[in-house]
Each structure stands twice: as C-alpha cells, then as structure tokens.
C-alpha cells in the first residue's frame, strides 16, 4: 500500500536536458538521458547561479507527452527563473498545480514502475480527482531525487498532477437530430479510428461547422450478432436541414434526458471516467440509470492525445 498525499505546489522553472524516448534514430532510453545530464552538467550548467536550494543537491525528472502521444523525458534542476538557457540545454516551466504525491522506496530504475502503476491504476479508481496532465501542462509525472537516494533502500518522491471534480454538472439535453456513422467489428480501437475519420471528413465537407472546432459524440455497444460497434455522431443545428447523406453517413433522431456531465482528456479517458463515476456515486440528489455517451471537442480536424471531451451519463433523482 502506497501512502498518497494531496499537495499544492507553486509554479516551478527547470533547466536540464531532454530526449524523446524510443528505439528510433535520434531517440534514447531513460538511462541515456540521465547519463547525458551528468556528462554535460559542468559544460552546460557550471556557471548557473540561480539554482533553487543548491545545498539540497536535488534533481527532477519530468515525463512529457506531445500531442501525438510521443514520450519525452527531461532531467534537470529547479531554478528561480528561466532568464538564461544555455545553448544545448532546455528550459521547462510547470504551472502551479495540485498533485498526488507518493514516496517511492527502492531502486527507482528497477522498481519505480510499481509505484506509478499503483497511482495511475488503483489510486485513481478510488478517488474523484481527475488528471491535470493537459496540453498546457503536459507533465504526467514529476520525479524528485534528493539526498535520500543515498539511503538503504533509497527513497524519492513522485508527483502526479491532478484536479478536483469542480466542473461536474447536471444538465438537461433536448432530443436532437444527428448525422452518424457506425463502425462494426471486433477491434474497438480500430473501429473508433474508422468512425471518427468518416465523421470528421463528412462534417468538414458538409460545411455545417462554422469554425475549426466542433463536437462529435460517440457511443459504444454490441450488435445482435455480438459484434462491437462504435457510433460517432454530429448534432445537427436546429436551423439546418440535412436530408442528403453519403452512403456511409446517415441521419436519425436521438433521445434527450437528464445527464450528469464531466470533462475529461482523451489519453486519460478510462481513468477520468472512473473518477467521474466515483463522484456520481457520492451524489446526494442524482443516481446513474444507464445510458451514456462521450462528446469530443475536435480541433483542426484532428483527434489527438490531448483532445478535450465530456462524459454524459443519464441520471434521475433519488427517490
């Protein structure tokens, strides 16, 4: 059992080095990033005078993900501000955030994964907090190494950015018409890609969206033949009359109702959903009754790692 504390930290600035992690040319392993940091420390950072608490001899590692989900690993130290970034170094600024903090005991290279698995697995299943690993703060984990690393066994801290469920609401959704495409098969992840591609292309060609941002709903289920399906739909504005549709895209009516609504992030969908349901189970006025969908905010015609979404779960008042 890992002891998890909820802590607040002010914004922080870091200097260091980073590499994309992977097997391709120009990529590296996590161990190689640490090696690069220590080998180049004197050359890059020997004249830095604004290191925060240099007597602590502390290092940080940041796990960063870009919009395509590529993993970047940063190793460095905290500075008062990023007024000077040496050539060959990288500056990173982390905004003020709330964190789930845990102390890991054991050799990090061999055992840190167990603590992170607990935080991102078991712990998120028991809390209503959601991830704050967002596009403007793309840090999934912050690792903190200080003099405790010389203990036997070594110790270090990990921080996972989180946010409370402050934007959960109860909303009434009116019945609506929507253009939809249903992909059917056995691989749900592939069905999702197929259905989104068809609807994004249809919406852009139809001219119904007024700008580069529009919303697509998605429902999952099983056919009578016991195949999985992913149905992606676009709510047609009331003033629009859409009768002609392609061979793939059709139009039908969807029922409305009362829904609990919560925001989430594409890459964290399952865990944000679990947090949302934990919140709803504790709601004193409403209870879930089955019937849900997700609504994705599509930006520039693309569904990516940081796409914002909203969960809709049908509810009714407690008797």
Brief rundown of the structure:
The protein is α+β, with helices and mostly antiparallel strands and 319 residues long. It is built from four helices and 17 strands.
Describe this entry's structure for a reader.
By secondary structure, the chain is an alpha+beta fold. The chain is 21% helix and 42% strand. The chain has 4 helices and 17 strands. The strands form 2 sheets. Strands 1, 2, 3, 4, 5, 6, 7, 8 and 9 form a 9-stranded antiparallel β-sheet that branches. It has an 8-stranded antiparallel β-sheet with strand order 10-15-17-16-12-13-11-14. Strand 16 and strand 17 form a beta hairpin. It is elongated and about 65 Å long. 26% of the residues are buried.
Q: Given the C-alpha coordinates, what overall shape results?
A: elongated
Task: Determine the structural class based on helices, strands and strand pairing.
Answer: alpha+beta
* Mean model confidence by pLDDT: 92
Tell me roughly what share of residues is in helical segments. Answer: 10-25%
- Radius of gyration, Cα only, in angstroms? 23 Å
Q: Count up the helices.
A: 4
């Amino acid at each position: 059992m890992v002891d998890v504390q909820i802590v607040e930290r002010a914004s922080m600035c870091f200097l260091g080095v980073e590499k994309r992690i992977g097997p391709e040319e120009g990529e590296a392993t996590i161990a190689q990033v640490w090696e690069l940091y220590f080998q180049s420390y004197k050359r890059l950072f020997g004249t830095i005078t604004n290191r925060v608490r240099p007597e602590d001899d502390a290092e940080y590692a940041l796990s960063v993900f870009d919009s395509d989900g590529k993993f970047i690993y940063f190793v460095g130290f905290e500075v008062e501000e990023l007024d000077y970034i040496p050539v060959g170094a990288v500056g990173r600024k982390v905004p003020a955030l709330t964190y789930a903090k845990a102390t890991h005991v054991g050799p990090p290279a061999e055992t840190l994964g167990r603590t992170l698995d607990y935080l991102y697995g078991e712990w998120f299943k028991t809390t209503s907090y959601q991830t704050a690993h967002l596009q403007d703060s793309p840090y999934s984990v912050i690792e903190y190494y200080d003099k405790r690393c010389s203990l036997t066994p070594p110790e270090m801290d990990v921080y996972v950015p989180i946010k409370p469920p402050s934007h959960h609401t109860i909303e009434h959704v009116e019945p609506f018409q929507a253009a939809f495409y249903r992909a059917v098969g056995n691989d749900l992840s592939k069905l999702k890609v197929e259905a989104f591609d068809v609807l994004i292309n249809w919406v852009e060609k139809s001219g119904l969206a007024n700008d580069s941002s529009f919303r697509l709903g998605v429902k999952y289920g099983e056919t009578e033949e016991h195949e999985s399906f992913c149905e992606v739909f676009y709510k047609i504005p009331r003033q629009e009359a859409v009768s002609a549709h392609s061979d793939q895209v059709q139009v039908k009516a969807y029922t409305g109702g009362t829904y609990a609504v919560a925001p989430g992030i594409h890459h964290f969908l399952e865990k944000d959903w679990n947090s949302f349901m934990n919140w709803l189970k504790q709601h004193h006025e409403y209870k879930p009754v089955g019937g849900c969908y997700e609504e994705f905010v599509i930006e520039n015609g693309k569904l990516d790692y940081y796409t914002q979404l909203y969960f809709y779960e049908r509810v009714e008042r407690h008797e």
